[in-house]
Amino acid sequence: MSAENEHQRGRIEGGFDAVIIGATVEGLAAATCLAKNGFKTVLIEAAADVGGPAATRGFAEGCKVSDEAHLVNALDRDLVREIDLYRHGLTYSERRIQTVYLSDRDEPVVLDGDLARARETLGPRVGDDAAAFEAFFKIYGDLAETLSGAFVKGLTAADGTALAKALTRLQKDVSEEGYALLKRACVASTRAALDPAFDSALLKGGLAFDAAFGGAAAPSAQYGFLNLLRRWAGESAGIHAAYAHPKGGMGALADALRRAAQSAKVDIRTNTAAKSILLEWDAAAGVALENGGQIRAETVISALDAETTYLKLIGPAALDMEAQADIARSPSNLILAKAHMALAKPPALPKLSAEALRGRFVICPSIDYLEEAFRYAKFGRVPPKLAMEFIIPTVHDETLAEGGKCVLSAWIHPAPARLHNDADTAALKGELLDKAIATLEAYAPGFRKSVLEAEIRLPEDYAAAYGMNASIWAARAPLLDQWLRTGVLQRGDRVDGLFFCGPEAVIGGGVSGGAGRRAAGLAVRRAKSRSSFL
User: Fold this and answer.
1) What DSSP string describes 374-416?
2) What is the per-residue DSSP string for 432-482?
3) How many angstroms separate the CA atoms of 369 and 387, rounded?
C-alpha cells in the first residue's frame, strides 16, 4: 500500500485495466476480484487508510470500538470463498452470537445464534411460540436464503414502482410455493406478518426491531416485513442468518481485505483523491486526481456514494433529468445514531448469566413500543424510551479495552435527523446520550454509575470522518425500492465502463462486499464481450 508521492503529482499514468475509487469494504472487494480475473488494477483512497467506515477507532482512554457496524451478518459468502478471506487473517472473537430480547419486567427471550436451533433457547418461557418460531423461520428463513443472491445483484425492472414487474423478475429464483410466500412478504407490514404468528409481545417486539432496523418504515407500514428477510438472507462464519464479531473489531476485517487485495497485486494508493471521472465518447476513460494527475483505464468502479459518483465526479450534464432526480432524492428525516460507552465494569442484566453478556441485545419490548418511537422521531423528538441494539464486545475481545475497562456499542433506531425546535447537533447528541443511558439503566440497574466516558455518533460525524454523504446514514427507503434502485445503479448503462458499488448498492445495509464482487463481475463480463466483439 502506497501513499501519494510528490513525483506522482500531475502525472498521466496508463497501462491499467481498471481504477477503483474508494477503499471501502466494497471497493476492496471489487479491486481484489478484478485483479484475480487478470485486470491490472489500481485502488485509490482519499484517506490515509483503507476500510472507510469499517474501522476500529479509539474513543476513550484505553478503549476502542467498531466505529460504525459492530457485527457481521451479511458478509458475502461467495466473496469470502473467492478471495480466501480467512487465509488473509479474518478471525472472529465470537461467532454464532445469540440474540437476547430484553424486558424490564419479565424473563428475556433468547434466540440461539443459529436460528434454526432457536427452539432450544426459547424453551417454555414463550410457550407455543417456540414451536411457532421454528415453523416461521423454516418458511421465511429458507425463502431468505434462496433470495440471498438476488439481494446482492438487485432487480432490473424498467419501472421502479412496479411491484408486479419486480416479482416477475424474482419468480425464476424460487419455487411456486416460495413465490406465493414472497408475494405476501413483499407487501406485508411487519405487524401484519408477526401478530398472527406469535403470542409473546416481547418476541414480536424484538423481531419487529430487527425488521425495522435501519429503515424508515414503522412496523405498521406496508412493505416493512421484507427487510426481515434481508436480515435473514445473510450468514456469518458459515451459519445462515447468524451474527459474528471480528476479533479486533471491523478494522480487522478491513485489514484482511487489504491483505487479500495486496496478495492479488492490487496497487493500493491512499491519500489519493479523485477529482472527476474521465469520459471520452460517453464512456469511462479513467480518473482525474485532485493532485492534477490522471490514471487512464477503460473500467472505473466507484465505491463512493451515488451523489458523489454521478453528480460530482461525472457531473449532471452527463445524466438525464430522471437520473439526476433519482440520485439526488431527499433523505429520510429519520437516522441511525450510534452510542459508544466506556464502562468501569460490565453491566448487570438481571435474569442473565455473565456468559450471556457475549450476546447481542435488543431493547424493544413490544411492537407498540417501536411504533411510539417512530412517532416521536418522525416529528423531530427523541423518543422517551429508545429502541436499541447493543453489544459488549470486550466480554469476548480483550483487544478493545485496557485496564479492566469494558466497552458498550449501541445502535439507536429510530432517531430524528434534527430536533423539532431546530436545536443544534450538540443538543441532539446530548438528549440521545441522556436517554440512552436512562434506557440502559432501566434494564441494567446501576448502569449509569459505571459509565466513564461516552459519545454519540451521528451521520454528519461519519460523513466528516470518511468523506461520504451524510444521507447514507439516513433511514433507508422500503427494501423493495432499494432492490429496484440498486439494479439500476449497478448495471453500468448510464456511462459505459463505469460500475457502481457504493453504499446505495448494498441492499439493506450492513458489511457485505457483495456489491463490490457484483460490480467486478459485471466489469469482467463487459470486457469479455468487447474482446469477443473485437
Assistant:
1) HHHHHTT---SS--EEEE-GGGT-GGGB-TT-EEEEEEEEEEE
2) HHHHHHHHHHHHSTTHHHHEEEEEEE-HHHHHHHHT--GGGGBPBPPHHHH
3) 8
When the pLDDT of each residue in the chain is averaged and rounded to a whole number, the result is: 89
Q: How many CB atoms lie within 10 A of CB 106?
A: 13
Report how far apart, in Å, the C-alpha atoms of 516 and of each of 23, 27, 58, 76, 168 are: 11, 6, 28, 10, 26
Residue 144: predicted pLDDT? 83
- The residue behind cell 401484519 is 192
State the residue for C-alpha cell 477503460.
298
Q: What is the DSSP string of 169-181?
A: HHGGGS-HHHHHH
One-letter amino acid identity for 113? G
Pairing mode, strands 451-457 and 334-343:
antiparallel
What angle do helix axes 129-146 and 176-187 make, rounded to 10 degrees? Answer: 100
Cα distances (Å, whole numbers) of residue 312 to 46, 62, 97, 185, 292: 15, 39, 41, 37, 17
Contacts for 305-309: CB closer than 8 Å, 24+ residues apart:
305/468, 305/469, 305/471, 305/472, 305/502, 305/503, 305/504, 306/489, 306/500, 306/502, 306/504, 307/469, 307/471, 308/468, 308/469, 308/502, 309/21, 309/277, 309/500, 309/502
Q: Which residues contact 281 (CB under 8 A, 6 or more apart)?
A: none
> How many CB atoms within 10 Å of residue 509?
22
Q: What is the pLDDT of residues 170-215, one digit of tens each?
A: 556 556 665 666 667 777 899 999 999 999 999 999 999 999 999 9
Burial of 101 (0-12, 13-18, 19+ CB in 10 A): buried
Question: What per-residue string of b and e applies to 403-425 under the rule 16 or more CB within 10 Å gives b?
Answer: eebbbbbbbbbbbbbeeeeeeee
User: For 117, phi and psi rounded to 5 degrees?
Assistant: -110, 15
For residues 252 and 57, is the Cβ–Cβ distance under 8 A?
no
> Is residue 483 over pLDDT 80?
no
Peptide bond into 219 cis (omega under 30): no
Name the nearest CA neighbour of 419 among 411, 428, 410. 428
